[in-house]
Design goal:
Number of domains of chain A: 1
Low-confidence stretches of chain B: none
Mean pLDDT of chain B: 95
Order of helices and strands of chain A: EHEEHHEHEEEEEEEEH
CATH architecture of chain A: 3-Layer(aba) Sandwich
Number of strands of chain A: 12
Structural class of chain A: alpha/beta
Radius of gyration of chain B: 18 Å
Shape of chain A: globular
Largest sheet of chain B: 8 strands, parallel
Mean pLDDT of chain A: 95
Number of helices of chain B: 13
Strand order of the largest sheet of chain A: 2-1-3-4-12-11-10
Oligomer: heterodimer
Strand content of chain A: 25-35%
C-alpha cells in the first residue's frame, strides 16, 4: 500500500496522529509547507490551539492550498482541527477553512477542569463503546442536513462525516483504540484494517 | 476499581492538554494587555503572573501566587489556556487556582518555596500540573506525584540559554543511558536517581518521559527556541524574554514561528531579521549561588 496521509504539523498533537496512522498500516508524513501536500492522498488536521494554528496557516500561506486540497482529497480534523474544518466559528480570532458545512463553537465543553473521558457509541460499530477524550472541546451546529452524524454525546453531534471528510470534537489519537482512524482509512479507500 | 479508572481517566485528560500544547510557545504575561499581545502572536497558552522572573529576581522578597483578580482578568481576555504558578508544596494556593479554573498549574521554583521537603500531591487535583526539573530523577519524582507535563528549568529571568541547554542535555543523556541498560540494573538506577522504579522502567523501555517535556528558563530569541527544540524540547516556555525586549509583539510572533519551523534554517533566518534589542540578560557568574532558582525543588 503506497497511499500517504499528511498530518498538518503547525502545532499540537500531530505526532500522535502519525503514530496512530502507522499503527493502522498507513504511511504518514508531516505537512508544514504547501509543497508537502504533493503526494498526499488525505490529510489530518490535529488538535492544538486553533488561534495558533490559524495564525501559522496565514503566515505560511497555506489557506488556499489546503482549501483546494480538500476539494479533491479527504480531510479529518479533531478538536482544533475540527474548528479549522468548519464553515464558520463563533470566534473572530480563528479563520476556518470552510471544508464542511457546520459552525464550530469554541470551548463549548468548558475549561480544562471540565475536560473528561466518556464512552460514546459509533454508528458504524454500535456494539462496542469508544473511549472519547474531550479536552477543552468544541461543539458543532450543523449548517446542512446533508451531513452525517456518526456519534453523539448527550444528544449533541460530536463526530460528523461528509464526502469522506471527518470532523470530531474529541481526540481519537489519545487512546489505544484504533477504530476511528481505521474506519476512516477504509471509508476513503486508503486502509486495509 | 471505579476509583482507579477515574484516576486513570483524569490523568489521560491532564496529559491530553499537554499534548495539545506541543509544538507551541507558552508566554509569561502580567496583565490582560500582554495576554492579548501573546495570543495575537500565536502563543498556545499564557502563564499569568504578577511579576516576570527577571523582576522577581531584581525586587527580591517573597514571591507568591498571583492575585486571583489579575488571573481572572486574563482568563476573560484570551481564549487560549491560562496557566498560573503556585509555590512549591503550597497545595492551598493550588486549591485556589483550581477553584479559579486555571487550565494548568505550574508548581514553580520561580516563586519562593512554601515547603522545603515536599511538593504538592498532584494526583489529588483535577487541573493538570507542570513542574520543573534539572535532571531525570527530579522529573520522575514530579511525575510520580502526578505532574502531567515537565519542563526543564533553565535559569528563569536570566535571558541566558546556557542552563536550559545544560538541563535538557542532562535529561536526554540520562534517558538515553537507561535504554542501553539491562533490567537487572534498573533498581540500582532508581535508587541512585531517587526515582520511582516503575517510571525508571518506563523510560528504559521507551527512551522518553511518560508525559510531554518542554523547555523553560532563558529563552530570549527565535534561535534559542529552535535550539532547545532541536535538543528535544516538545514546546517552549518564554518568560522575561518577550516583555523585557524592545519589541514584544514582533519577538513573540517570531518565537512562535521558530518553534514550529525549528529545523528549517531559512525560516529561522527570516524570523530573526528586523528584531529590535533583546533582553539584556545575565551571565551566570553574575547570579550568586544563593539566588539561583533552578536549585529549588527536592
Amino acid at each position: 500500500m503506497n497511499k500517504m496521509v499528511g498530518v498538518l504539523a503547525m502545532q499540537g498533537a500531530y505526532q500522535k496522529h502519525i503514530d496512530m496512522l502507522q499503527a493502522c498500516g498507513a504511511r504518514a508524513k508531516m505537512v508544514r509547507y504547501a509543497r508537502e501536500l504533493d503526494g498526499c492522498d488525505a490529510l489530518i488536521i490535529p488538535g492544538g490551539e486553533s488561534t495558533t494554528i490559524s495564525l501559522l496557516l496565514q503566515k505560511s500561506a497555506l489557506y488556499e492550498p489546503l482549501r483546494s486540497f480538500a476539494q479533491t482529497h479527504p480531510v479529518m480534523g479533531a478538536c482544533a482541527g475540527m474548528i479549522m474544518m468548519a464553515e464558520a466559528v463563533d470566534d473572530a480570532r480563528v479563520t476556518p477553512l470552510g471544508i464542511m458545512p457546520f459552525r464550530a463553537l469554541r470551548n463549548h465543553y468548558g475549561r480544562q477542569v471540565h475536560s473528561f473521558v466518556t464512552d460514546i457509541s459509533l454508528n458504524f460499530d454500535e456494539g462496542r463503546p469508544f473511549p472519547a477524550v474531550f479536552i477543552r472541546a468544541p461543539g458543532v451546529e450543523k449548517l446542512s442536513a446533508d451531513i452525517n452524524v456518526l456519534a453523539e454525546y448527550k444528544g449533541e453531534p460530536v463526530m460528523l462525516e461528509k464526502d469522506g471528510h471527518l470532523a470530531l470534537s474529541f481526540h481519537p489519537e489519545l487512546t489505544d483504540d484504533k477504530r476511528i482512524h481505521a474506519w476512516w482509512l477504509k471509508h476513503i479507500h486508503l486502509g486495509t484494517l | 476499581m471505579t476509583d482507579l479508572t477515574e484516576t486513570e481517566n483524569t490523568f489521560t485528560v491532564k496529559v491530553g492538554l499537554a499534548e495539545m500544547l506541543k509544538g507551541g510557545a507558552i508566554m509569561d504575561v502580567t496583565n490582560a494587555e500582554q495576554a492579548k499581545i501573546a495570543e495575537d502572536a500565536g502563543a498556545c497558552a499564557v502563564m499569568a503572573l504578577e511579576r516576570i522572573p527577571s523582576d522577581i529576581r531584581r525586587d527580591g522578597g517573597v514571591a507568591r501566587m498571583s492575585s486571583p483578580d489579575m488571573i481572572e482578568e486574563i482568563q476573560k481576555t484570551v481564549s487560549i489556556p491560562v496557566m498560573a504558578k503556585c509555590r512549591i508544596g503550597h497545595f492551598a494556593e493550588a486549591q485556589v487556582l483550581e477553584a479559579l479554573e486555571v487550565d494548568f498549574i505550574d508548581e514553580s521554583e520561580v516563586l519562593t518555596p512554601a515547603d522545603d521537603v515536599n511538593h504538592v500531591y498532584k494526583h489529588d487535583f483535577k487541573v493538570p500540573f507542570v513542574c520543573g526539573a534539572t535532571n531525570l530523577g527530579e522529573a520522575l519524582r514530579r511525575i510520580g506525584e502526578g505532574a502531567a507535563m515537565m519542563r526543564t528549568k533553565g535559569e528563569a529571568g536570566s535571558g541566558n540559554i546556557v542552563e536550559a541547554v545544560r538541563h535538557m542535555r542532562a535529561l536526554q543523556d540520562e534517558m538515553r543511558r537507561l535504554t542501553t541498560m539491562g533490567k537487572e540494573q534498573l533498581m540500582a538506577v532508581a535508587k541512585d536517581h531517587g526515582a520511582p522504579y516503575d517510571l525508571v522502567c518506563y523510560v528504559a523501555e521507551h527512551g522518553k518521559l511518560p508525559v510531554p517535556n518542554f523547555s523553560a528558563g532563558g529563552i530570549a530569541t527565535p534561535a534559542d527556541a529552535a535550539l532547545v527544540r532541536q535538543l528535544g524540547a516538545e514546546a517552549v516556555f518564554v518568560g522575561s524574554g518577550i516583555f523585557k525586549s524592545e519589541d514584544p509583539a514582533a519577538r513573540a510572533a517570531a518565537i512562535v514561528k521558530a518553534t514550529t519551523h525549528y529545523d528549517d534554517p531559512a525560516v529561522l533566518l527570516e524570523v530573526s531579521r528586523g528584531l529590535q534589542g533583546g533582553m539584556k540578560g545575565l551571565e551566570m557568574s553574575e547570579i550568586p549561588e544563593e539566588e539561583r532558582l533552578a536549585v529549588r525543588g527536592w
